[in-house]
Structures are given as C-alpha cells and as structure tokens.
Amino acid sequence: MTNDTDMKKLAERETLKILILGFVILVLVGVMMWKEARSEWRQYQQGFIKVLQEHTDPSSDPGKVASGVKQIYLPRANRVDRCQTCHLGIDSKGLEKAPLPYLTHPEPTITWIHPIERFGCTLCHEGQGYALTKAEAHGDVSRRLWPKPILPKEFLQASCGKCHNPDLMEQDAPKLFAGKRLYKEKGCIDCHKIGSVGGSIGSEHTDLARFSISYLLESVMNPTANDPGSAMPNLGFTEEKAKALLVFMLSLDKTYIPYKYKTVLQQ
Ligand code: HEC
Ligand code: HEC
Ligand code: HEC
Ligand code: HEC
Fold it and tell me: What b/e string do you get for 166-185 counting C-beta neighbours within 10 Å, with b at 16 or more?
C-alpha cells in the first residue's frame, strides 16, 4: 500500500503548489491594480474636476469628466497620441486661463486649421505619443529610448517647416522664415546638402532634426568643440542668431518627407 500513500502525498504537495501559485498570482494582480489606480495620469484626471469647477461651471459633476486613456489614432502617420489623457482641456472652451496641463490650446486658429482629431499632438510638438507618464510622453528620457523630446516653445515653429515650405511662412511662422533666410544668407548650403541640393564639404543636412538641440547649437556657435580639425567656419553667431538658425535646422526631418507640403494629410 506504500504506493497509494505516496500518491496521496504527491497529490497533496501538488495541491499546495497550486494554492501557493494561485496566491502569488492574486497578489501580483492586486499590486498591478493598485499601481494602475494610483498611476500618474489618473491623478491628473482627478485634478481636472477642480479646475473645471474653478474655471467653468462651479457645479461640475465629477461623473461628467471623461475617465480612462484618451487617444487619437493617425493611421497615415502611423502614430497614436495619448497626450489628451492628461491635457484634458486642450479642445474645450473656457479653460484659456487654466493651469498646465489642463488649459485650452493657445492660438485657437492653429487648432482650427489643424483639427486635433486629424493631426493629434506629436506631429507639431514631438514627444512620445503612446506613453502615459509625463517623463516618457515628453521624451525626458535617454535619447536612445526616445530621440525626439517635445520641442521647447522657442523652437516650436520648426515643426511648421516639417510640412510647410518655410519660404511661404513669413506671416505664420516668422522664426522659421527668419532661420531659413539666415541659412541662405550665410551660405550654409554651399557646404551642406539638403536632399539633392547643396555642396558636399560638410555633412548632409537632410535630417538634422535627429540631433539634440544642444549638439546643434554647439555645432553652429563653436564648430571646433565637437571636432578640433573641423573645416566648419566659426561665423561668430550670437546665441540669438544661432537659435533662429536652429528653428530652421530642426525643421529638416526626413521622417516627414511623406507629409512635405501637406500631401499625406489631405483626405
Ligand atoms: C502623465 C500626464 C501627461 C502626459 C501623458 C502628457 N503631458 Fe504634457 N504636460 C503635463 C504636465 C503636468 C505639464 C505641466 C508642466 C510640467 O509639469 O512640466 C505638461 C506640459 C506640457 C507642455 C508645455 C510645457 C513645456 O514643457 O513646453 C507641452 C507642450 C506638453 N505638455 C505637450 C505634451 C504632449 C505633446 C504630450 C503627448 C506626447 C504630452 N504633453 C503628454 C502632463 C502630461
Ligand atoms: C498644428 C500644430 C499643433 C498641433 C497639432 C498641436 N499643437 Fe500645441 N501648440 C502649437 C503652437 C503653435 C503653440 C503655441 C506656442 C506659443 O505660444 O508660442 C502650442 C501650444 C501648446 C501648449 C502650451 C505650451 C505652453 O508652454 O504654454 C500646450 C500645452 C500644447 N500646445 C499641447 C498640445 C496638445 C496636447 C496637442 C494635441 C492634443 C497639441 N498641442 C496639438 C502647435 C500645435
Ligand atoms: C503634419 C503636417 C503639418 C504641420 C506640422 C503643420 N501643418 Fe499647417 N497645414 C497642414 C495641412 C495638411 C494643412 C491644410 C489643412 C486642411 O486641408 O484642412 C495646413 C494648413 C495650414 C494653414 C492654412 C493655409 C494653408 O497653407 O493651407 C496655415 C496658415 C498653417 N497650416 C500654418 C501652420 C503653422 C504655423 C504650423 C506650425 C505651428 C503648421 N501649420 C504645422 C499640415 C501641417
Ligand atoms: C566652408 C564649408 C562650411 C560652411 C560654409 C558651413 N559648414 Fe557646417 N560643417 C562643415 C563641415 C566640414 C562640417 C563637418 C565637421 C566635422 O567633421 O565634424 C560641418 C558640420 C556642421 C554641423 C554638424 C553636423 C553633423 O552632421 O554633425 C552643423 C549643424 C553645421 N555644420 C551647420 C552649419 C550651418 C548652420 C552653416 C551656415 C551658417 C554651416 N554649417 C556652414 C562645413 C561648413
């Protein structure tokens, strides 16, 4: 009968293992649910109701605030932008004076011409559309993890040049227009190529937007810093001039070639 008791013991041991495993899984699921409930974006969503009450309707009902992840899918651009999960008021009226991240989008004509449901956010601002923490979404992470952090406001007009011809943007994106003019005046194109146009003494500039802002600023203001033997002339730019140039340089983005001059987004 030893065989029988052995079998019984074995069965008991197996049952115990399964029970322990079940318990571990239960705890893990519990921890995940707890983390999810306390996630950064949920906290921003909870903060939104107070902002609504202060800025629009004092009797706003928490139940009316959309909860959950909000996203825009842009199949042609192959992007999913979830920025609105935290930037909850971006396409509402009445939150012009609300604090970040809840405010209505500034410059209403911009989002009127480029409706958010067709353009999302990252086509203009960059950043990692799919991410749900502020650091990851804004791209405040290693450039190896996300090479295109959100563009600081002073360089934001670079994005207009990713789809529009800078020479036609004097009114709508004056910094971009000025940067392009400076690039032409200083003869950068004599040594650098953009697409098939330009010289070949320096590197190609077709995709300069892949570099960080600090690297580009340094390359222009102090060319020998990155390479002591560089043939790149120091043109004595002030920081202000260099930043103007940078708005144009950051608009040189190969990944936007399909939308160049507005072709892809036209329905
Ligand atoms: C987890 C919440 C969260 C997500 C997701 C998020 N943001 Fe933000 N964002 C914030 C907060 C909070 C601020 C206020 C400024 C701060 O705290 O740094 C902000 C500020 C900003 C600003 C203005 C300040 C600046 O640094 O220029 C821009 C532009 C912006 N976000 C764009 C985006 C874009 C584009 C996305 C999507 C790729 C995005 N955000 C996703 C929370 C978020
Ligand atoms: C067509 C381009 C475009 C699109 C699309 C766009 N924005 Fe903007 N955004 C701008 C411009 C231009 C400004 C104004 C910058 C300024 O005031 O100089 C701006 C300003 C902002 C600001 C205020 C920045 C600050 O520091 O005060 C936030 C926040 C912001 N956008 C978030 C978003 C979010 C979130 C989305 C997507 C839901 C979005 N934007 C879509 C172009 C765009
Ligand atoms: C992803 C590409 C893209 C980006 C980035 C973009 N635009 Fe546009 N823009 C378009 C498209 C597409 C239209 C046409 C809109 C339509 O057909 O509804 C347009 C239309 C316009 C118009 C109306 C006149 C015209 O040329 O059709 C202006 C002005 C304009 N954009 C300015 C800007 C500014 C300023 C920025 C930067 C803040 C910007 N755009 C960023 C794609 C873009
Ligand atoms: C006489 C030729 C010449 C002119 C004019 C010139 N450059 Fe350069 N540039 C170079 C060379 C050569 C390099 C490569 C240096 C090196 O080996 O790192 C370079 C490098 C650069 C880089 C670094 C790019 C990279 O791929 O690492 C930037 C950015 C740049 N130049 C911008 C400009 C701008 C903006 C202008 C106009 C204001 C300009 N250059 C004018 C020759 C030139």
Answer: beebeeebebbbbbbbbbee
